[in-house]
Amino acid sequence: MKTQVTFTQKLWYVTILMVAVFAFNPMYGQSTSSSQKGKIIKGTVSDLKGPLEGANIILKGENQGTVTNAKGEFKFPVALETGDVLVISFLGYESIEYRIKTDTTFVKAVLSDEVIEFMGAVNTNKRYKSKKRKN
Amino acid sequence: MRIFLIHIYLFVFVFQSYAQISDFQQISFEKADEIVLKYKDETLHNLPDLVYKLTSELDTDAERFRAIFKWVCSSIANDYKLYNRNKRKRLRYKNDSVRLNEWNTKFQKIVFRKLLKDRTTICTGYAYLVKELANLADIECEMVHGYARTSTMNIETLDTPNHSWNAVKLNGKWYLCDPTWASGIPNPETYRFQFDFNSGFFLSDPKIFAVNHHPLDKKWFLLEGATPSFQAFLDAPIIYGKAYTYFSDHSYPQKLNNEVQKNKSFNFKLQLQKEIEKEDVNLVIESSFRERKIYPDQISIQDQSLSIDYKFEFSGYYDVHLYIKDDLISTYTIEVTR
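YS: structure for the whole thing
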């Protein structure tokens, strides 16, 4: 015997299907976010003499970052994942890159002075005057 | 056959071309320059953020580097007092490496504090900042140290490195630039630093660059084949900032001090990087008694090469200055003999 599928039944199937989709969708979303375990990273930045205030910490390749306080401490504003790279920099110091590992919760960065010999030649538009000609 | 021809083409036209600004003729730096203007008053307290502001809206590394370079050149002032202080100390401790090192360490702290607080610096500070910012934008960039010559420098005492500039890698090729000299020059009256961006020092042709820049490490000449000797550098004519905006090379004369017989023609030859009118070329000839401005009639412009022939009618000792319109290009001394 051939079953007749009425329009009302069709409507029911569609409704159930849609309910199912909507019902499972949030769950699906939850499962993804829980698989990427983001964590808030804290840390300190110092040089050989002590904490550095105003050092920059950024997530490599993104415009996410923060600055250390007077005690050289920072708390990174977004959750980080294993494998993310923090770039820690401060004017006059060599920048360092820090890769977040599975067990990283705290970053302790010690920056070393950039060794630069400073010099400078000033350019000028002043016309050259030969010494010989003056005599 | 076609592949063979393409190889020949590549070899002739691509591999022989020096790295310079003309490689980027198709790129307009207008957008980068506008961004620089917009963020002119930013501070150096957050370098990554500054780099993001300067570069995130730009599509190519060349434009991104332009924004960084021009920002540094138009936001950081040259501190002549600091420069003189360093020069004096470096001269005093020239033969005392311990004291010199002590001074360098101390001075480094002063420089970075000044840079952060007042946004003023000296050459190495410019070069350092360009490098740091470029690196933060993932652009390969190095500081180059060496000797530089200007019209007011006493070359007899030029025995220690006195200048720093940058080399930058764009599309796999290295280029030269000098942020200190691109930023400005002293005001002719007050002698105080004045911002005056000179784009001639941005991705300059290595040939003209070598006329008054002599790197400690030869590889930074970026020249193929033989590089100029230190003596050739000391003997070279004086060229000024504007030379970099008109010319890609200075071919002749190769020395500052020259000699010629009277009524024999003396030749000047420079390679152009943009079109000029013959009528704009003039020489200012200075003798002990007077100064004359002349428009030589023997001028030729062929294949981007400017050649001037001039005959001195009277013997004597002259300072000869080459100008394009009112722009001072170069200086030579010429002794005209009987």
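YS: worth flagging: The first helix of chain A runs from residue 7 to 35.
IM: good catch. Also Strands of chain A lie at 42-47, 50-51, 56-59, 65-67, 73-75, 85-89, 96-99, 106-110.
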